[in-house]
Amino acid sequence: MVGLVWLIPALPLAGFLLLVFFGKRIGEPRAGWIGTSAVALAFVTACLVFVGLWGEPEHTYELSLFQWIPAGHFNVDIGILLDPLSMAMVLFVTGIASLIHLYSIGYMHGDSRFPRFFTYLNLFVFSMLVLVLGNNMVLTFLGWEGVGACSYFLISFWFEKEENASAGKKAFITNRVGDWGFMVAIFMTFFAFGTVTYTQFLPMAPGLAQTTATFIALMLFVGAIGKSAQIPLFIWLPDAMAGPTPVSALIHAATMVTAGVYLLVRVNPIIAASASWIPWMIAIVGVATAFLAATIALAQQDIKKVLAYSTVSQLGYMFLAIGVGGYSAAIFHMITHAFFKALLFLGAGSVIHGMHDEQDMRRMGALRKIMPVTAVTFIIGWLAIAGVPPFSGFWSKDDILAYALHKSPILYVIGLITALLTAFYMSRLVFRVFYGDARWGESAEGELANLNAHTATDAVETGDQADAHDDAHADAGHGAVHPHESKWPMLVPLIVLAFFAAVAGVLNLPFTEHLEFLNRWLEPVVGENQAHLSLGGVQLTVELVISTTIALLGIFGAYMVYLKNKVDPRRIELPFFANGWYIDQGITKFMGGIGRKGFELIAMFDKVVIDGAVNGVGRATRGGASRLRAIENGYVRWYALMIGVGAVLIVAFVMTQVSL
């Protein structure tokens, strides 16, 4: 069954090709079902391949499809590397993408570009699978650029609004900085090893000169911080929320932004062979990003912006894990984060849909009774990301903190503070959206009575009639908003994701080695370079108790502020945090001021000096050739004279060299 691995990326590609040529004819909703079916079949195939991979030596299988780039000693194949790391990535990418495709059928209902949306989604899934399954760095880079292009298409999908188009361009340009680092790393890898195929150069990494390994690791880290939104290149991710909510869930929470984490874990032998300051730099950048983004999330009013900065913060945790040698912990948190963050984004999309495109939490409240399924599933995601046991986020986050404590108590303390902030700002979101007073109508009681009065009518309405009723309902009563629960294509993915967000922690429980399934599964990829922890029962218990206490303190603090009103929220929601520490504004000011002048000087230098030198050589060649052309006049007598002169000069030269 493992030989079917080529079908996994081929199915989304087939869906993309079918939709790109016939999408308009197929129309809504069939285009959505075709796109969803293609990805769902890829997930089913991935499950079959996973079963077959158990029988392979070290759970590794490599397949070369055909030669792509033959250029002297530089050869690149279209090949697939299936190992524990890529298999884990494929399973959750295809699984979550299937659910998000299904959700999108309901969310994008009525959009004029409905087929195009699913065309882009299928292309994205194909590109992401190429990224994680490629057996060489060039193929990984191809998928890397593919997901970047799809990100641009999907962020600016509603390009009629200027801010959406600007957000797409911002994401595209910011990611180019990271892509430059990845490209340089590919070049240097080929110069150092003579190959860019993972199974060929990674085993040779321990013998690599430390300086070379350090440079390659540094450039790969530059690529990773661009794609995974770390300091200072995190500024694109919050603006990317301009895209449709399923895009936020699929690309900017569950899959694409984890590509940088995947890349660093993949090349862990290079990091191990580099200078000791490289892991420290990765850990410091990660924990700093986690803390900074958590503080910014405290003061955001847009429900999707809170989740966006939360994503940046959780990615920081993953980078912290890589820096402290907890590679399996980074993948563990990547998987659990994919479940609960996709759940939270889709839940937010359900709220926005039910609130008729309202995203400001100040106009929400008391929605748990109006949207019970959305509320219950969202609360499960909240408890998971807040680190409340036994939900999945508790186990994966505590795993990272254990490795951080092993590396440095300072990293551990900052990680704990960030966990406290995470529990606080996520509780703030839940309390303001689902609890407290209703701020979406004239009064909570009036709106609930209005909802009950229409329950019987809604029960007999179907299809377009119900949609028309919802629209009329939204426009009624002095501009009041009348929330409603989402329909089943949006609710089923929420229920499935909520289940996995609750139980995914069983993948890597810390009590015994027999329960650390993910650690054992990833051992062929990261085993030699993974930091080894020896936690006694007392230490493990203390760490788990501390993590639980921190999560509960964060929830209690938000409860006292936002439900009991014991503290003025303005004392916490500082303008400094609301404006993202003014980092984005500072970069914008620099780029539009002194930075722009500097870039203009560089462009002038390029035009005058670099291009001038190249063009000067061309002009000199043309000038010399035009003068030499004068002696090529076509007269035989002139040629004979030149031959004679040449012969005389040769004889004269020879005579001067003869010693008498």
Produce the secondary structure layout.
Blueprint: H1 7-26, H2 30-53, E1 61-71, E2 74-82, H3 84-107, H4 114-133, H5 137-155, H6 162-193, H7 198-201, H8 210-227, H9 236-239, H10 245-254, H11 259-266, H12 268-273, H13 277-297, H14 303-323, H15 327-354, H16 372-386, H17 392-407, H18 409-434, H19 444-460, H20 463-474, H21 488-503, H22 517-526, H23 537-562, H24 575-578, H25 583-592, H26 594-628, H27 636-657
Antiparallel strand pairs: 1-2
How would you describe this structure to a colleague?
The protein has helices spanning 7-26, 30-53, 84-107, 114-133, 137-155, 162-193, 198-201, 210-227, 236-239, 245-254, 259-266, 268-273, 277-297, 303-323, 327-354, 372-386, 392-407, 409-434, 444-460, 463-474, 488-503, 517-526, 537-562, 575-578, 583-592, 594-628, 636-657, and strands at 61-71, 74-82. By secondary structure, the chain is mainly alpha-helical. Among the domains are: 280-449 and 480-592, no CATH class; 593-657. The protein has a two-stranded antiparallel sheet. β1 and β2 (74-82) form a beta hairpin. α10 (245-254) packs antiparallel against α15 (327-354) and α13 packs parallel to α18. It starts with 6 loop residues before the first helix and ends with a helix.
Specify the helix fraction band.
Answer: over 70%
Q: pLDDT average, as an integer?
A: 87
Number of helices: 27
Query: Which percent range describes the beta-strand content?
Result: under 5%
Task: Please tell me what the overall shape is.
Answer: globular
Distance between the termini: 87 Å
- Going by helix content, strand content and strand pairing, the class is mainly alpha
What is Rg? 30 Å
H/E element order: HHEEHHHHHHHHHHHHHHHHHHHHHHHHH
What is the count of β-strands?
A: 2
Strand order of the largest sheet: 1-2
Low-confidence stretches: 454-479
Membrane topology: Multi-pass membrane protein
GO cellular component, one term: membrane
Catalytic activity: a plastoquinone + NADPH + (n+1) H(+)(in) = a plastoquinol + NADP(+) + n H(+)(out); a plastoquinone + NADH + (n+1) H(+)(in) = a plastoquinol + NAD(+) + n H(+)(out)
GO molecular function: NADH dehydrogenase (ubiquinone) activity; NADH dehydrogenase activity; quinone binding
